[in-house]
Amino acid sequence: MIKHHALATAVLFAALGSSALQAAEEVNVYTYRETKLVQPIFEAFTKDTGVKVNVISASSGLEQRMKAEGANSPADVLLTVDIGRIDEAVQAGVTQPMKSEVIEKVVPAQYRDPDGHWAGISMRARVVYASKDRVKQDAITYEELADPKWKGKICIRSGQHIYNNGLFAAYVAKHGEAKAEEWLRGVKANLAQKPSGGDRETARDVAAGKCDLGIGNTYYWALMMNADPDKKPWAEATKVILPTFEGGGTHVNLSGVLLAKYAPNKANAMKLIEWLAGEHAQQVYADANYEYPVRAGITVNPTIAGYGKLNADPMPIAKIAANRKAASTLVDKVGFDN
Ligand SMILES: [Fe+2]
């Protein structure tokens, strides 16, 4: 059935001649990012290269879909956020290693898979939204979040959410499981309420006085401040502090690209991936998403720059991926979400 379909397509293309061949210059992108966010970027790519981008956008299940489609999957590129989702795609076996001198040159090694299955194209940091009224300090470490001085003062979403899983996995990678468990118990003891909501609701709760410190991603604060008038007061009541690990830097996570295992338009897929790492795309993409460009020498959005200079922790993101399971197990063990 499938073979017959492929043959029919080939015959059709032959019948249509060169215009059909031109139309075949395309690339199929599966993404968890919102269409309105990525469409302008892809339009710029098409303008630059003549390659048409077909976008399949979904909020979940893309790896399962690619798996079910198997060798007939039209997917060329998977564009997703967070090492959790990136790692899930690799684990699902729906990707293949990419070889690209451009990516190796432009994307720092810590933001690439050593096996080549994924590369970061922008970064977000997991930071503290602190009450402007009640928090005097402008610096904090992740370790300090477990200090009893913050008892009853911290708000955070579920410890099993991928954003926290990434942060906790980084903690495990840095300090080992025993220390991470102790730390998680300390943070848990400092919570003002049961983990709930998302990062925006965390800011809301800090603004409402339920807690003094909230944990959230950098871009949510910028979105609340600049693009969501209803939530602007939540941003205005808080200040972003870029925490660091003791002796290290701020925990960052990625938005990244993966090359699909059966990419039917592999050359165009690589063209797109390399283009996304280019100066123009890096500028537009990071700015549109309020993220940090992965490429050096690109101007950071002014709101994001206003948080202060990002000193990203040097830990390879692959090492964080390797500790995701351990972090998740610890969250259950300490009853973090209970
Ligand atoms: Fe998010």
Q: Summed up, what is this model?
A:
With 338 residues, the protein is of the alpha/beta class.
Q: Main beta sheet, described?
A: 10 strands, mixed
Radius of gyration: 21 Å
Number of strands: 10
End-to-end Cα distance: 51 Å
Structural class: alpha/beta
Task: Report the mean per-residue pLDDT as an integer.
Answer: 93
Question: What global shape is seen?
Answer: globular
Count of alpha and pi helical runs: 16
The unique ligands bound to this protein are: fe (ii) ion
| Low-pLDDT segments, ≥5 res | 1-22
What share of residues are in beta strands? Answer: 15-25%
Question: Which oligomerization state do the chains in this entry correspond to?
Answer: single chain
Order of helices and strands: HHEHEHEHEHEEHHHEHHEEHHEHHH
Helix fraction? 40-55%
List the helices and strands and how they pair.
Elements: H1 2-16, H2 18-23, E1 26-31, H3 35-49, E2 52-57, H4 62-69, E3 77-81, H5 83-91, E4 95-96, H6 101-106, E5 118-131, E6 154-155, H7 162-175, H8 177-190, H9 199-207, E7 213-217, H10 218-227, H11 232-236, E8 238-241, E9 252-260, H12 266-276, H13 279-289, E10 292-293, H14 302-305, H15 317-322, H16 324-333
Parallel strand pairs: 1-2, 1-3, 6-7
Antiparallel strand pairs: 3-9, 4-9, 5-7, 5-8, 5-9, 5-10
Helix pairs in contact: 3-13, 7-8, 7-16, 8-16
